[in-house]
Design brief:
By secondary structure, the protein is mainly alpha-helical. It has 4 helices and no strands. The chain has one domain.
């Protein structure tokens, strides 16, 4: 494909599994960020405070912002993002946590793709 035919848009898929050791710290961090957000309407603020207080996964979703991940990457502009969080059971020895067939492996690095670390 020539440069003229190549799309400028790139979909970057990231899946992160976090182990939460201190739910109160996560909740407090989300509440602090929410308190510092002057642009959020009062009704939305009240709803978000309730959500991050009741569910650590919601607090993490509020704290992790895709713009923060790519905001300082030179030459790119975030066009659209969506993300969610959920509590999951984790067994590191389970086949469920292996690379999916759509995921990139170390063999793909030669093709200019990056393999998974971990």
């Amino acid at each position: 494909m020539s440069t003229e035919e190549t799309s400028r848009f790139v979909r970057l898929r990231v899946e992160i599994l976090l182990e939460v050791h201190d739910e109160a710290a996560v909740t407090q961090a989300a509440l602090r960020r929410l308190a510092d957000d002057a642009e959020i309407p009062d009704a939305e603020r009240a709803h978000t405070e309730g959500a991050v207080t009741e569910d650590t996964a919601e607090a993490l979703a509020y704290l992790v912002d895709p713009f923060d991940l790519v905001g300082e990457v030179p030459g790119v502009e975030l066009q659209q993002a969506s993300w969610s969080s959920e509590r999951v059971e984790h067994d590191p020895d389970s086949a469920e946590w292996d690379l999916d067939e759509d995921d990139v492996g170390e063999d793909d690095e030669a093709d200019g793709e990056v393999g998974r670390i971990g």
